[in-house]
Amino acid sequence: MSEPASANAPKPSSSVKLVLLGEAAVGKSSLVLRFVNNDFQENKEPTIGAAFLTQKCSLPTRTIKFEIWDTAGQERFASLAPMYYRNAQAALVVYDVTKPSSLTKAKHWVAELQRQASPGIVIALVGNKLDLTNDSGDASESAATENEFESTPNADEAAGEEGEEQDVTPGDARKVPTREANTYAEEEGLLFFETSAKTGTNVVDVFTAIANAIPESSLKTGRGTGAGTGQTALSGRSEDSRVNLGDRNAATAKEGCAC
Amino acid sequence: MLQWNSFVQKAQSLIDPANFNIPALSSSDHNPSKASLFRQQFRLPDSQNPLQEITADLVLPLPNSSGTQGDRRVDRAGARYTGRLHLSERFICFSTQPTSFLPSASLTASTNWTGQTHGTGPSGNGFTLPLSCIRRVERLHSASHVFSLALTTWNGLLSKQQEPNFVPQRLIIQLVGSRQSSERFCDCLKKGLREGMKEVDNLRLVVSDCYSEYLLSGAKGKSQEGNEADARQPPDAGLGMIFRYPGDARKLRDRSKMRLWGEYFRENGRNTTLVRQPTFHKLIRVGLPNRLRGEIWELTSGSLFLRLRSPNLYQETLAQFQGQESLAIDEIEKDLNRSLPEYPGFQSEEGIGRLRRVLTAYSWINAEIGYCQAMNIVVAALLIYMSEAQAFSLLSVLCDRLLPGYYSTTMYGTLLDQKVFESLVEKTMPVLWDHLGKFDVQLSVVSLPWFLSLYINSMPLVFAFRVLDVFFLEGPKVLFQVGLAILRVNGEELLDVQDDGSFISVLKSYFSRLDESAHPRSENPKLRAITRFQELMVVAFKEFSGITHSTITEQREKHKDAVLENIENFAKRTSIRNLGPESKRLSVDDLGTIYDRFYETLYQWQQHQRLIEEERKRQEKKKSERLSILAPTESEVGRVGLGPSPTHMDYEAFREFLAATSKWAAGDSPAPSRKNYPGDQGYHSQKGSTKSLLWANRRLPADHEFMQRLYRKWATDPTEGLSLQNVVNGLARLKGSPDIMNNINYFFDLYDDSGSGEVDREGILKMSEALLFLSRRGFEGTISAPTQSLEDLNGPRDREHAEQNRLTADERFLGSVSAFIRRCFEYADPSHPQNQGTAKNNVTEAAEKLDSFAIGGDDDEDLIDVDGDSKSNKSPVSEASPRPAKSNNPNATTRGQNRQASESANPALDPNNPLHITLPTFRMVVLADELLEQFFESYFPQSFHLSDHPHPAALAASSSLSSNLTTFSNLGSLRSPQLGAASGVSVAGASGGIVPPGKGLRGVLDNIVTDGIRMAAERELERNALGRDEDDDEEDEEDYPRRADASAAAMAGGIGSWGAGAYGADPERRSVREADRDLLEGAEVVSVRGKDESSSLLEGNEDSELPANKAVGSPTDHSGGNSSSNHDVEVVSKVVEFDS
């Protein structure tokens, strides 16, 4: 099945299962769409269960093919999440920089992943909608259009917010200071980025950073076909087979978890 | 713990009325209830029950001969079906399926039914007629003894326009059975018909929305280009009428399907009056014509009957909730633009508006579900073919019956059916299953959207609708059959798949080519013409015809527990993690226990409430409310995994929770017949299941003021109830730190009603009562045997202590409590500074005496000062001085004030002078008693049992803990070397100001035992008695007949009688309490005759129990108390007996 990398594919290619988690409407699907198709849509079809997309990411020494599971954000779909993050090697936990409750939710997801997902999963914390803040230079747009969901009152969140309130410039839709999220990410050992799926700021960087952070040992190599970008989500190339390394099966995620 | 949890759930699932209505399980026999099977078969609303049934022949008369297609009619002429005729409240149903739904019928019959549903669909041949559409019933004269009825229906007569060639529908039914049973059936039918007449208006309304009426009225055929100006407008058959229906109508052969249906309707009735013959099922299998699709869906799913019941519910709901907002609405709004966006209707405001209204209206009538993503897609699809009101009622049939639990907040139905699907794949396609397992491809990742959105966004719309056509007729098994067929058809390709990605893409490309020929290279043109979709349908319904409704039901039952458990574990994990920083003070095990107990209690409480409610309803015989027509009635409530469960417990439930947590919170009588548990015992004893027995055999919780205080203290909003967070925080504060000061402070806080840092006299009494309440089941070993220290401290009372040492901890604790009360009053501060001026004049000897020992300062420094120099107590002196112990002139104004202030303050030595203790005083008083100290040190926090550690270990740990930490022995010079330091530190640290505790407290105790305070104490206690009485009158607690101790004596001597009266159901306990009394009498209590002062004081009081107060004395505790005479003691106990 797996053949040694042929001459026309100089760099070894490996697949990485990546899952996106986060509160509803923080822009998970948009991030993926930006990364995969370099596109942005105002009205994306809602994700039922999860959407599956692939994209390649070329590193100097190797090519990473991301198999991206973009999960539904609605709260009640949370119980389906274990099905999707099972065996994932990387996770993108997304929050909305204009919505503090979404960071709380993100923290919950991080905790969930750290305990339930494969050990050694690479987690990136991503604050999306940077375009709505002053940092992006385009602060004209207001975040008021965003609906407030699931604003679960949470003690630590509230405390954290108030402490940092002064960081927030008036007139700025930003509600989650970079420093706060960054501090949290450092504590938990997460990669941290602030992005804008709309403008594309930092989006590719996130995925590249993840690709770099995946330990070589946990990569499974497949028949590399160069660094072509998979423009279609589902190319149907079943010949793109790859070896299934033992570690994937040995992942700790409970068999049949919540499904 | 986890095992217990799962056991509990298993037990539950055995008894729970099934949440899956198809068929719902009755709570009693783990089998589908007849009524629900009946409703299921005929798609009837939940309000219907099988009343009568009889074997009958349905004779369909010859189709009237207007005859273009005479041949075919002749073929079917005189069709005669044998089957069962059923009667419910509002329906008469006939089915060729030999089924029986009467409660008395044998069970096998109803199981047979589920086995036979495949192929023809659950309804078989026959009819489901609302009684309202029967116009008349005639008894036919027949030569034979056959009992024949002719039913004439309203078919075709409800619209104003007369249809061409119309002949009224007439069904002939020959009852087969004894004359008696036939007569009985007819009687019942007659009654039903009379009721049914009331619904004819509804019928007219509903039927007018049906496209079939329009079709048959001939309006369509004739209305060729405006030659009929007033031609009837066709009823709303969905957005498709405006934006075109998906697919190519010619390719779908829509016109000829329409013609066939028209013909079928003419012969067999339409909408409500339709008679199902084999052709009906065939016509559905080939795909419904666009304009009739909505109507037939409505008919086959039974949502038509919901609409018939309340035709205006949709509009009414919209009107009722107009302008209101909800989370669901926000969520809906977000998805409106992304529901079937490829269909032009949903790019327009018209389509989006309809979608918005239907989803919103449903979210209002079923708030438990609210809105779930995927509902938008399903409803959007429905709206292409039906009106808003039709889609609305069909959606509720979907959510309640066809897709149970799919869209609930936990989506358990979705997850469950995925498990079922996987197990079916494993069974039917083991090779593929093994392959997927080998490559770790998770099937449900692919199949979940199929089920959740009914294939609508997996397949091209035209094909998804074909699946829906059959789905509404035959039920959820169709989803499984189609899913299995998809895998079977693609089996070979799928066997090459090695990861999720390629698995998905194989299927995606298959779906995109469903319209292509299944056999493109075949020589046979007929074979070539078969599309992949047709092939799929054939595989689904032929090859997987073995997948029946009972298969699905069985499998769901099998996997339900595991799935719910998974969800609940997930929910538990998540919510425990999200409990916030406070919860970190408890171990994960403890949190898990709290979580389980919390939801278990809520669940049980909920079930319990529901039963009571049902009982009440049954008694009132009230018709169910409008909304309940659509709401599922047989679903269980409260279980976390099933969806929205209550998140807050009220006080009643909290009591149950406490009873499961702490011994002291359990009631004293094991099976009381309390008035707030009507039907409780009866219900639970009926059900033979383990779980309900557990619940029934549980100790009913006690009800005590302390528990109420705990409840109020823990709740963020007592009216809303306690959330898990509240309970966790409450317990974390109690158990989270092993610090005695924390516990003492906490206890004090509970009684600090005003939040002013002061507890008044009433509060002190309530505290002592609570101490007794908490300790009445013993100390579980947390309070150790008396130590040297006590003797050490109370040196002069050697004899007394020799006696005390022989007593049990329980008994000694009573003494401690009585000492507690006494000391509290001794060291209490007066509350009303404004009284001081006048009161100062009345300073008495006693008060002066008291001053020198009064140490109850407002802050810790006073306490310290006491030790060194009692004379230097400036603030206690000034505050204590106003106690006019002997002043007998309660003037009206101050009395009024006192009464007003009686909640927060009460007089100590005098009714005019309210007193209070502060936290430092309270601490001091507690620490002054070894038992009380141990009580707060270990027993109090430990009496809340969380994770089920093996008891011995926990207790060993706890007792060692208690002996290790600050006891008086530690504080004094006898402190054990290795522990002393630590304990000293902890006390000092926690108590803040109290520096060298050992010496200071000892000094305090020396003061305590001085008889200089005797007088003051007496007076306090007299006043206490009054306070108590008032208190009792206000509170009127049935559980505690405290009138018995409405005396000062009760404070000491009466403690025993409280025990007997309030808790003492069993004689053993009573005897203990009597022993306590002995103790109190012998060692601690001095009963003193009421003095003149006290009686005159009492005269000023309007209390009704004046005589009792007069008669009693009050206890004091000091060495002089030993001189108390037996005579006095007798008086005390007599009074107590008399009063009780």
Automatic annotation (TrEMBL), chain A:
SUPFAM superfamilies: P-loop containing nucleoside triphosphate hydrolases. Residues 136-176, 221-259 are annotated as: Disordered. One of its GO terms (molecular function) is GTPase activity. Gene3D superfamilies: P-loop containing nucleotide triphosphate hydrolases. Keywords: Nucleotide-binding. This is Uncharacterized protein. The keyword Transmembrane does not apply. It comes from Penicillium alfredii.
From TrEMBL, chain B:
Residues 857-867, 1029-1039 have a biased composition (Acidic residues). Pfam families: RabGAP-TBC (PF00566). Residues 665-688, 785-805, 854-912, 1021-1048, 1060-1140 are annotated as: Disordered. Residues 886-905, 1116-1126 have a biased composition (Polar residues). SUPFAM superfamilies: EF-hand, Ypt/Rab-GAP domain of gyp1p. Residues 794-805, 1066-1080 have a biased composition (Basic and acidic residues). It comes from the Eukaryota. SMART domains: TBC (SM00164). GO terms for molecular function: GTPase activator activity; small GTPase binding. Residues 287-475 form the Rab-GAP TBC domain. This is Rab-GAP TBC domain-containing protein. It comes from Penicillium alfredii.
